[in-house]
Specification:
- The structure is a single chain.
- By secondary structure, the protein is an all-alpha fold.
- The protein has a domain of about 100 residues.
- The chain is built from four helices and two strands; from the N terminus they run E-E-H-H-H-H.
- A two-stranded antiparallel sheet has the order 1-2.
- Helix 1 runs antiparallel to helix 3 and helix 3 packs antiparallel against helix 4.
- The longest helix is centred in the middle third of the chain and has 29 residues.
- The chain is elongated and about 80 Å long.
Length: about 150
Amino acid sequence: MSENAPHGRRHGDGSGDEERYDEETHEGEEPEEDEPGDGRAESAVGCLLSLAGVAVVGSFALTRAGYVIDGGFEGEARDWGTILVELPLILLAGVVVPPLAYATASRRLRTWQAALVCGAVVALGLWGLSEGWQPQQRPDRGDGPGL
């Protein structure tokens, strides 16, 4: 190895047969790099999708679990399991699933196609949540509103 080689790089015999990039003179084959703005745009899209996901899922889940949170008459129907376990997990899924679905789809698809896939994943998740998650609802006795 040559003594003058920066950072432990091996320089050739000077014949020019080797393709290399010299950092000091900025000559030779330059390594390919992504544009610096791409990372920020993807991060911004991920943050916006997280906010939109938690807003949509939160409005869906919190309205559905309103009676469990309120507790009904004297708090007798308050379900702490739903409040402390189920709702936080649902909100966490709303934060994580949309940007993860978008990031996965955007590796193979165009931007608008990835957005459609993300929307479809969120819609399927909400459908599954509506079918599988049944928190206690206000009892309907059929005698109308109270006095």
